[in-house]
Amino acid sequence: MKSKNINIYFIGRRQGHSFYRFFPSKIENLRKDEEIGFKKTNNLSRTHNINSANILFYRNKPEKTTDQLVNSLIQQSKKHDDKLVINDINSFYNYDSKDRAFKIWQDNNLLCPKFLAFSILELNDINKISKKIAEFLKKYKKIILRSNNETGSRGLYVIDSVNEIDIILIKLKKRINKLVKYRKDTKIICVEYLETKSTNGYRDLYRVHVLFNKIICFYVSTSKKDILYNSLMSEKEIERFIRKNHEFGLLLPKVKNDILKSVEVLGNNIGAVEFFLIKNKPYFIELNPLWGGHAARNGFGNDNMMTYLLKNKNELINKVPNIYKWLDYKGFYNSIYSNIIDYYNNK
């Protein structure tokens, strides 16, 4: 019989381990209104004593997580393998290194971009690597050249000309020479640019939030830019934004199993998984266990777009309920922590 009141212990880069465990602090990497949603959850309390915890929740920000920190957290986790673990540190590299994620997805018959990966040692022969990338570009016409473990657009270049390769390779090599000192799995990767533009030039990016093999929420962003950012949407995208979110809600039951599998095979139980749709099949590109960004702070698009969505909520909520579930940050995070409690009590 599980205890009525469940204790959760948060672990981050500077929280809950080593000497940090002696200094109670604010939960790391809090999303907007997450703490309010957490406090509204019945029968769930935060503890600052790991031994009294029923649940461990790792909240280390991936791009700030060094190998030294991973090793420290893994050693700590071995002492508490009887507890429910959320965002298990043992699976960190599976999602942090995008080439590892792609390989795992491929091995499990999930669709994702084709790619090449080059270690710091291989980059000693930069001419050989340049030729391989040129061949890859010739095959796919347009590619992404980037570091394998940075977020956003950091260390990321879209290339459609062979003349760009050497210049960008030199820039990236300098970049990863610094990163690899603290994160030894750092590489340069060459990734197929998935051409998903519609006839009117739009690309759509899908993000689905998963917890314990259950879909909690989703949303679709749309833009004419090569690199999609939610913040770049404007009132011009409103009609397509609403239509694409509605259409994906109808399609979701058909692709649900692949989406859940994409998180599970990486060894994780929480995350926002991103993908493109090609012929109604998901091509996975990234898993972020601690999602954030513009949508998690400010909603969708610019101020005019958000004003429209809020003003027309009563008219739109039945068509795109996912949008308004997400925008209710307090309710959304309350549902996250309520699902954690339900899972713990039923496991």
Give your account of this protein's structure.
This protein has helices at 34-39, 67-78, 92-96, 98-107, 126-140, 165-179, 238-264, 294-298, 303-311, 313-316, 321-327, 329-346; strands spanning 6-11, 44-46, 55-58, 84-86, 115-118, 143-147, 156-159, 188-192, 203-211, 215-223, 270-278, 281-288. By secondary structure, the chain is an alpha/beta fold. It folds into three domains: 6-94, no CATH class; 114-192, ATP-grasp fold, A domain (Dna Ligase, domain 1, 2-Layer Sandwich); 203-346, D-amino Acid Aminotransferase, Chain A, domain 1 (2-Layer Sandwich). Strands 2-1-3-4 form a four-stranded parallel beta sheet. It is globular. The model has no long low-confidence stretch (mean pLDDT 93).
CATH class of the largest domain: Alpha Beta
Secondary structure tally: strands: 12
Rg over CA atoms: 21 Å
Give the neighbour order of strands across the main sheet. Answer: 2-1-3-4
Low-confidence stretches: none
Arithmetic mean of pLDDT = 93
Instruction: State the end-to-end distance.
Output: 11 Å
Shape designation: globular
Largest sheet: 4 strands, parallel
Helix/sheet category? alpha/beta
Fraction in beta strands: 15-25%
CATH arch. level architecture of the largest domain: 2-Layer Sandwich
Order of helices and strands: EHEEHEHHEHEEHEEEHEEHHHHH
Number of helices: 12
**Portion in helices:** 25-40%
Topology readout:
Elements: E1 6-11, H1 34-39, E2 44-46, E3 55-58, H2 67-78, E4 84-86, H3 92-96, H4 98-107, E5 115-118, H5 126-140, E6 143-147, E7 156-159, H6 165-179, E8 188-192, E9 203-211, E10 215-223, H7 238-264, E11 270-278, E12 281-288, H8 294-298, H9 303-311, H10 313-316, H11 321-327, H12 329-346
